[in-house]
Amino acid sequence: MVAGWRRFAATRGRTLSDDEIVARTFGWRTVDILIDAFGIDPAEAAAMVASGFDDKRAEVAAGPPLREVPGAAVFVRAALGAGIPCALASSASMGNIELALDAVGLGGAFDVVIDQRQVVHGKPHPDPYLAAAAGLGVDPSGCVVFEDTTPGIEAGLAAGARVVGVATLGRPEMLARAHLVIDDFADQRPDGILHALTQGGG
Question: What is the pLDDT of residues 131-161, one digit of tens each?
């Protein structure tokens, strides 16, 4: 992801550091990145996305296999097996979401999937999580959001959910406002997460 945005910046005569790329692209919708980080006209940015600018299938096919966050698939299946309704709210396109889910064996697992085009405002606005909660027919305040970026955490908080930061990017400062932080999903269980949130006052 970092390398891809670095290459795109170069085509527009820009040089972005890794920290700038993380801060301005991780967790954001592609259309918002193009507008806010690169100053592209909103209509042009929307047209770029509509034409497949952020389609990662060829890039993924040419690179190493996508890696699952340790324990994530087992955790999701455990939640579903316990009767917990599960949704996915992403800043990515539906094609990229499906690509990632299929790669980790979770294709078709989620009851509701919200992609970048289903909401007017992406993260850090609450819209993605409000839409996910509405799709599940539950109150956002009863939801637990798992996020690894600052915009995602802010979106979950703005929606009124409890937020668990997942430290997979090696940038703990991005998770500072989460109610709970975990390294990954290895050895985690849904009931354990709920207990930890309750014990922590989340």
Answer: 999 999 999 999 999 999 999 999 999 999 9
Number of compact structural domains in the chain: 2
Please indicate, yes or no, whether residues 103 and 163 belong to a single structural domain of this protein.
yes
3-state secondary structure of 79: helix
Domain containing 49: what range?
2-54
Q: What is the pTM of this model?
A: 0.86
Q: Tell me the CATH number at 83.
A: 3.40.50.1000
The values of phi and psi at residue 184, to 5°, are -165, -165
Q: Which residues face 180 on adjacent strands? A: 164
Exposed / middle / buried, residue 34 (Cβ in 10 Å: 0-12, 13-18, 19+): buried
Instruction: Give CA 10 to chain center in angstroms.
Output: 25
